[in-house]
Design a protein that fits this description.
- The chain has helices spanning 20-30, 49-53, 80-90, 110-120, 141-150, 181-189, 201-219, and strands spanning 34-39, 42-48, 74-75, 94-98, 104-109, 129-135, 155-163, 168-175, 193-198.
- It is of the alpha+beta class.
- It folds into two domains: 1-116, CBS-domain, CATH 3.10.580; 124-198, 2-Layer Sandwich (Alpha-Beta Plaits), CATH 3.30.70.260.
- A four-stranded antiparallel sheet has the order 7-8-6-9, covered by helices on one side.
- β1 and β2 (42-48) form a beta hairpin.
- α3 (80-90) packs across α4 (110-120).
- The chain is elongated, with a radius of gyration of 25 Å.
- The model has no long low-confidence stretch (mean pLDDT 90).
Length: 220
């Protein structure tokens, strides 16, 4: 998966010859906080809403504003995770996308990025989420995968986070089943600390029970 595979917003650029008023209107139309400035297909830099609002006269051209040329963009051949890192680091909700020749390809929005990450991490697939805690020296992904497979489940996604305070690793896995009672018991027998579980069959049963109770109350 490359950023080039993600739908990008097109026709979202301005030129240096455009007026500041025009650029502000474009920014309002797109609901973006920055706009790329291009010369043909060549990416020159970007301007922010604050840059435009601080201009002395909105009839001046964009050329009168100092363009930002920080490397706050992603290449079309980068992984979506690189875009997540940049958006998080710079508190951005959009990123210009360039090709290997520095040509502008479009704007990547946080919404399209979230959609892509949800597919990459199987977030839209049915299944339960389990959060485990294991000692850093005892962590073995192959052992966890084996326990999951023994219980006739498959791991759809796995992520880890090191907890430095107590030298443990928090492992979050998503499996392709919602009925995970046996799997949770298996983890407990192997001394894995189950911190939490979500989207389990038990949760669905509880939700159905609450719905029935509500319907009975309404019909009284």
């Amino acid at each position: 998966m490359y950023i080039a595979n993600i739908p990008l917003s097109q026709n979202t650029t301005i030129k240096q010859t455009d007026t500041i008023a025009f650029a502000l209107d474009r920014m309002e139309d797109f609901q973006f906080h920055l706009l790329p400035v291009v010369d043909g297909d060549n990416y020159l830099g970007y301007i922010t809403q604050n840059d435009l609002l601080n201009a002395l006269d909105d009839q001046f051209t964009v050329a009168t504003i100092h363009l930002k040329t920080d490397p706050i963009y992603v290449m079309a051949n980068q992984h979506p995770y690189d875009a997540v890192r940049l958006m998080t680091a710079y508190h951005m909700d959009t990123l210009p996308v360039l090709d290997e020749h520095n040509n502008y390809k479009g704007i990547l929005t946080s919404l399209e990025l979230i959609k892509t990450i949800s597919v990459l991490q199987s977030l839209n697939d049915v299944g339960a989420i389990i959060v485990l805690e294991v000692g850093a020296h005892d962590f073995s992904l192959s052992k966890i995968a084996h326990l999951v497979e023994v219980e006739n489940c498959q791991i759809l996604n796995c992520s880890t986070q090191a907890i430095l305070e107590n030298a443990t690793i928090q492992v979050t896995i998503k499996v392709n089943q919602s009925n995970i009672a046996n799997l949770l018991s298996s983890f407990a027998r192997q001394n894995y600390k189950v911190m939490a579980s979500f989207n389990t069959l038990q949760e669905f049963d509880d939700l159905e029970d609450r719905y029935k109770q509500l319907m009975n109350y309404i019909n009284i």
